[in-house]
Amino acid sequence: MYHTIILIGNLGRDPELRYIPSGQAVTTLNVASNRNYKGSDGEMVKETIWFRVSVWGKQAETVSQYLHKGSKVLVEGRLQPDPASGGPRLWTDKEGNTRASFEVTASTVRFLSSKGEGGGMGEDGEMPAGGEEEIPF
């Protein structure tokens, strides 16, 4: 069996690079993917899904070096289920609401922003998905 997920979105914050005890690099990205559609009332609806993406090895160092908040990326990888539930990672926010986090282990990260683009803005000139305060993790 095999599964893959392909995401296109914008980074909600700068990449976070760290090294595990074995010395291997891992970078965490928070990627917002937007979908626009017309609701049943005829109004445009903007839906945003956040993904927490882990990038490993040399690619993790490269991603950390060249990407920043607002950068547009294409991520290919696999969903990483919560070991306890087998689904998205569930957590409770500050207000006591249950939230879900979709976690992805990247096999490939492609940079879609040209040099100088993506300085915190989405393709429409707005902050991706309403800004950093909406990032669920």
Q: Runs with pLDDT <50, length 5+?
A: 119-133
Q: Profile the largest sheet.
A: 5 strands, mixed, barrel
Rounded to an integer in angstroms, the radius of gyration calculated over CA atoms is: 16 Å
The top level CATH class name: Mainly Beta
Fraction in helix: under 10%
SS element count, helices? 1
Number of DSSP-assigned strands: 7
- Second CATH tier, the architecture: Beta Barrel
CATH superfamily: Nucleic acid-binding proteins
Which overall shape is indicated by the principal axes computed on the Cα atoms? Answer: globular
**Separation, N- and C-terminal Cα atoms:** 30 Å
Number of domains in the coordinates?
1
Beta-strand content: over 45%
Tag the structure with descriptive keywords.
single chain, 137 residues, OB fold (Dihydrolipoamide Acetyltransferase, E2P), five-stranded mixed barrel, 1 helix, 7 strands, 7% helix
Element layout with pairings:
Elements lengths: L4 E7 L4 E4 L5 E14 L5 E13 L1 H9 L5 E8 L9 E4 L5 E14 L26
Parallel strand pairs: 4-7
Antiparallel strand pairs: 1-3, 1-5, 2-3, 3-4, 5-7, 6-7
